[in-house]
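Researcher: I'd like a candidate sequence for this fold, 203 residues long. If you have to choose between options at a position, lean toward the conservative one.
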């Protein structure tokens, strides 16, 4: 599993992993729910979500350069998301939806930057422990959550690597020549991850 944790002593670094995940879940749910509400149509919902994300990064001790770096890291994922939505939706709706998803992705990256993976797993297992009597597997769900959060920046890194390689060879930007290698690298990563989990006796 790839960890992007960066050691630090900020309030966000010292906050319990469970609290950070809970706050992130509330943020993601609010952004998703508001996307279908009347308030979402106002001019305030998206700037508020972006302001919360920026404030969280500053509170964690990361400057504007880190926010820009995280946005650039997922730029090709954003491009693919926007282009596919433009096939079915007007530009304004597609752009707004993509911007909301981008804020969630960037905020998820902050969790990986400020939280050790073992802490994340432990917090999830403790929170889901009471549900074990109902057949819930806290360990499996915690692992799934950790893999999901850490996979986002990994795939974004694949996208950046592909584009850099194509730029070095003078390959023009084309959706087909970008998506196919991204899918291949993502599937190979999932196979490698599955093999690693199987080698540790995890299903």
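Model: Candidate sequence:
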């Amino acid at each position: 599993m790839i960890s992007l944790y960066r050691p630090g002593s900020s309030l966000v670094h010292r906050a319990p992993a469970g609290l950070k995940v809970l706050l992130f879940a509330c943020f993601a749910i609010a952004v998703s729910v508001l996307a279908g509400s009347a308030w979402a149509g106002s001019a305030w919902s998206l700037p508020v979500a972006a302001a919360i994300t920026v404030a969280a990064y500053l509170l964690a001790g990361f400057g504007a350069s880190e926010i820009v770096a995280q946005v650039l890291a997922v730029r090709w994922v954003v491009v693919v998301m926007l282009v596919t939505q433009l096939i079915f939706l007007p530009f304004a709706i597609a752009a707004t939806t993509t911007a909301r998803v981008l804020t969630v992705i960037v905020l998820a990256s902050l969790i990986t930057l400020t939280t050790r993976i073992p802490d994340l797993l432990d917090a999830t297992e403790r929170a889901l422990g009471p549900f074990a009597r109902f057949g819930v597997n806290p360990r499996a769900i915690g692992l799934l959550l950790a893999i999901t959060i850490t996979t986002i920046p990994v795939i974004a890194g694949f996208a950046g690597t592909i584009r850099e390689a194509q730029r070095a060879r003078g390959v023009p930007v084309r959706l087909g020549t970008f998506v196919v290698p991204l899918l291949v690298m993502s599937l190979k990563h999932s196979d490698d991850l599955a093999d690693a989990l199987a080698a540790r006796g995890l299903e």
